[in-house]
């Protein structure tokens, strides 16, 4: 027993960039991958970690001094640096228990499909990381791994249910039938639902704005390198850097924002054979039923409303970050708030005006939640050794997906009464949304889903 | 070498899933081509020098290159047809 403990400790001590690849290798072999492929995937995983460490380290080295200088000059302390979702994903994959979420999600999905409690078959294995993130955050805040996984189970269930709700809407927005996005980022829609019903009563809120035209004008600003350069330059100026140092910071920031997704891709490259094997398995056993295939949100990325609203929110995020009392988050890596944009494009059925309003109204919520989680995210980074965070600063993610759920349940599991109250409230609002939206959809789409799918297939066969 | 690009929201997960799958399929068929995952915000830049564009979202404009349905690779439905189109386009 002691020998086993020593071996495990020895492996863990080598840090995430070694022990996670070893776990990957074992899983790959169990999944019947060819040994050479499994070793290759394992090494890419290690490279992904080391690479992410490089880029995040580079970003922190450039931005932290600027943030600290800004704090000295203005008294506004924004010392939690936003590494965005790619950083959060990177440190989450480094958590030793991360891989337990895979079997949990698959098991719950299979059970729910067998009992016809859901129509969604979730083959999106990438976003398992989001649930691992929930697990580790709650395990830190409540001190219990078991409670953490209980919350993960709850999240998997509500994700599948919301997947059922979005299916028809997504077909409307993308033209693709039979798919859905059972992503936890969309869950905030259930909290905004009551407000949305109120807005229905105001005639002006029902007008449609032309997102296509707006996107043309704003388009180039959304590119990572341009955005990074602009934010870096502005940060340099407010930090009192003067023009030349600000220009240097501009390029450094642009570099970080451009490289983040490039290195993140490596995680996906490593995971893809395993993810494919799991997807195949799920499809083989459930593929012929009337189901929605659950995919990741980018199938919606063609909707310009998402990009336009996210870009318009950027100045608001920066403004709120500075004026909100108690906020410690410097928005950077996560500044394109896809978490809200995707949720509200579905909720509002592509109504850009409402999307922008929701975006502005929820920005303070995102910032405060990010502030709340920053010590825990920093702790995860330090404990896994995945990223080095400098003294006096913290690492965070300014636009945490489904943050309200995480916050409520974390506090509840930690025994705080307001957490339990908020958790019950969250579930109540979700139930309200689920049943209310189902009725709305029946009215809006005018026919029963089964009939509709039959119509679509008839049309496709005649083409 | 011929170049295939796949675009999704951030160029990280979904497009990479499809890119990895396409790479594997091409390897099995002994067709050599570069397959790259890019983010949809930079699409205009990348689509100029590619030979095939695999779209995860229904494109509203014609980019002048053979455009395939990326969703087929994700759901498996209709994938064989897209693979045929891909092989044709890479000849």
What does the secondary structure layout of this molecule look like, with pairings?
The complex is a heterodimer of chains A (463) and B (91).
Chain A: H1 2-13, H2 16-30, H3 35-74, E1 80-82, H4 84-93, H5 101-114, E2 120-122, H6 128-142, H7 145-174, E3 179-180, H8 188-200, H9 211-218, H10 224-238, H11 242-286, E4 292-294, H12 304-323, E5 329-330, H13 338-347, H14 352-384, E6 394-396, H15 403-413, H16 417-445, H17 449-462
Parallel strand pairs in A: 1-5, 1-6, 2-4, 3-4
Helix pairs in contact in A: 2-3, 3-10, 3-11, 4-6, 4-11, 5-7, 6-7, 6-14, 6-15, 7-16, 8-13, 8-16, 9-12, 10-11, 12-13, 12-14, 13-14, 15-16
Chain B: E1 3-8, H1 14-28, E2 34-39, H2 43-47, E3 52-55, E4 67-69, H3 71-75, H4 79-89
Parallel strand pairs in B: 1-2, 1-3, 3-4
Q: Regions of chain B with pLDDT < 50 over 5+ consecutive residues? A: none
The CATH architecture of chain B: 3-Layer(aba) Sandwich
Order of helices and strands of chain A: HHHEHHEHHEHHHHEHEHHEHHH
What's the total helix number of chain A?
A: 17
| Whole-number tally of structural domains of chain B | 1
| Overall residue-averaged pLDDT value of chain B | 88
Number of DSSP E strands of chain B: 4
Strand content of chain A: under 5%
Radius of gyration of chain B from CA coordinates = 12 Å
The unreliable regions of chain A are none
Note down, in words, how this protein is organized.
The complex is a heterodimer of chains A (463) and B (91). Chain A has 463 residues and is mostly helical. Chain A contains 17 helices and six strands. Chain A has one domain (2-462). Chain A has a three-stranded parallel sheet. In chain A, α3 (35-74) packs parallel to α10, α7 packs parallel to α16 and α12 (304-323) packs across α14 (352-384). The mean pLDDT of chain A is 87. Chain B has one domain (3-89): 3-Layer(aba) Sandwich (Rossmann fold). Chain B contains four helices and four strands, in the order βαβαββαα. In chain B, α1 links the parallel β1 (3-8) and β2. The longest helix of chain B is centred in the first third of the chain and has 15 residues, at 14-28. The termini of chain B are close together. The mean pLDDT of chain B is 88. Classes of the chains: A mainly alpha (463), B alpha/beta (91).
